[in-house]
Each structure stands twice: as structure tokens, then as C-alpha cells.
Amino acid sequence: MAHNSCLYAGGVICFGAPSQYDFCMSTPEKPSSQQPAGANTGAPVAAPHSFDETLHRLWRQYGQSVTIGCAAVLLAILARGGWDYFAEQKEQATRQDYAAATTSDKLKGFANDHAGHILAGVARLRLADEAYAAGQGAGAVAAYEAALPMLKDSLLADRARLGLAMAKVQAGLTTDGEAALREFAGQADGAKGLRAEATYHLASLAHTAGRSDDVKKYADQLMQIDAGSPWAQRAQMLRLQAPVVATTPAKVQVGAPTAAEPAIKLNLPAGK
After folding, report:
1. pLDDT of 266
2. What's this model's pTM, rounded to 2 decimal places?
3. Is 227 helix (H, G, I), strand (E, B) or coil?
4. Close Cβ partners of 196 (under 8 Å, ≥ 6 residues apart)
5. I need a surface site. Which of 168, 210, 231, 249 has the fewest CB within 10 A?
């Protein structure tokens, strides 16, 4: 009878006779005493940095650059604010000077002292209107031409163009004046009221020169621009009147307004 015995060989435990093994079961090998490469050899491991330590380290490295950048931004904000304040104070002083310009001489002085400012252009426009109303065609032409560059980006630019055209007619430059009026009247993006006034003046000049066909043409054009305008009504009245035979067509005088034909006038805020 076979006796049970146990034999250990080569990591295998066998049960049964040495020559006749009934059952064998492999057993796990013992772990090697050698450590794999890169294994922990028992050296102390550094603990991870805390948030405060990391923040402190970054501040030591970049704190000076951050401080300089913040200071630069702050200085830019202060400089912009100071410039805006200075510009506002200067603008307020300019407006006060304009309000104090209550005479022609003061308007001239203001325009010279504040050349390039839009209010200087307004001052020259007022001076041009005064010259036109006084029948000083050449002076009005010069004043309107001086006002235009300073008013080119404002709503008063069209007003100055109309005044310049009429001043040329008043100064005896009738052909140039009428050409300027026609150009302005046909400008689709111009102020409708001023275009209607320019067209009426063309009809009036044609009526004075005895050109009845042109009177009819400009009256029809005025109806297309603004049929409800007072200028359109006046043009229709000219159309119904008998043509005037011009005895001296070389110069058409339009400086003296009548009740039926008012002079060019611009309502501007006078100095207080």
C-alpha cells in the first residue's frame, strides 16, 4: 500500500510514494531579495509644496514684473484722466470766449485765437453773413471761404457753401455763383431745406435775367425737392409773373432783400 509522503523538489510539493506521485501542486516562488531597478531604496521622499509655498515662490520670481506692469497701467489711467480733464477745461474756456464775442471785432479776435476749432468756423460764418448783409460781396466771399475748412465735418458746411455761392453772385461773379448753386441744388445728400433755398435763388436769378424757361425748370425742380417748402411756393409765384427784361445782366444785385425774397440768414447763438 502506498504510503503518503511529501516531497519538495524544484518548488513542487508531491504527495504519494517517491516513485509514484499521486498529486502534485506547484507553489509560488519566494520573492527575490533583489529590488527591481528604480524601486524605493528607502531614501526620504519630499512632500509636495503647499499652495502658499508655491505662491510665495512665484512671487519671488515674478513679483517685480507684476508690480511694474500694474504701475504702468495705473499711470496710463491717470494720464488719460488728466488729459481728458485738461481737454474739457480747455473746451469750456473756448465756449466762454465764444459767448463773450458779442461784436464783429471780438468775433475776428476769437476766430484768430482759436483757429482750427469749429467755433472759430462758426465765428467766421457769422462774419461772412454780416458782410453779405452789408452788401460787401468780396468780403463775404473771403469770409465764407475761410469758414468752410473748419466747418467741413459739421452740419454748417452746407450753409457755408450756400452763402459762398450767393456771395459770389453779389460780388459780380454771377456765372461762378450760379454754377455753385446748381451743383449744391443737385446734391442728393445735401440738406433738403438748403437745397430748396438754392434752387429758389436760381429761379429768382433766372427771372431777373428774363429766362422764363429756366424759371419753369427750377420751379419744377423745387417741387421735386420739397413741394411743401415756402421756397417752392415763391418759385411758383415767380413762374406766374411776367419775365423781367434785364437791362444790366453783367451784375445781378441780390444783396438787398425784399419781403418776397428774404436774404440768406443763419440763426446762430449770439454771445451773451
Report:
1. 46
2. 0.60
3. coil
4. 222, 225, 226, 229, 231, 232
5. 249
Cα dist from 139 to 75, 100, 130, 143, whole Å: 51, 24, 10, 6
Could you give the CA distance from residue 154 to residue 234 in angstroms, rounded to a whole number?
29
Signed CA dihedral, 27, 33, 35, 40: sign only: positive
Q: What are phi and psi of 52, to 5 degrees?
A: -65, -40
Q: How far apart are CA 128 and CA 160, in angstroms?
A: 9
Question: Residue 252: its pLDDT value, please?
Answer: 42
Backbone angles phi, psi at 165, to 5 degrees: -60, -45
155 CB-side CA count, 13 A:
6
**pLDDT (0 to 100) of residue 261:** 45
Low-confidence ranges of the chain (pLDDT < 70): 1-49, 78, 83-87, 242-272
- The partner residues of 21 in beta bridges, in order of sequence, read 16
Computed on alpha carbons and rounded to an integer, the radius of gyration of the chain in Å comes to 49
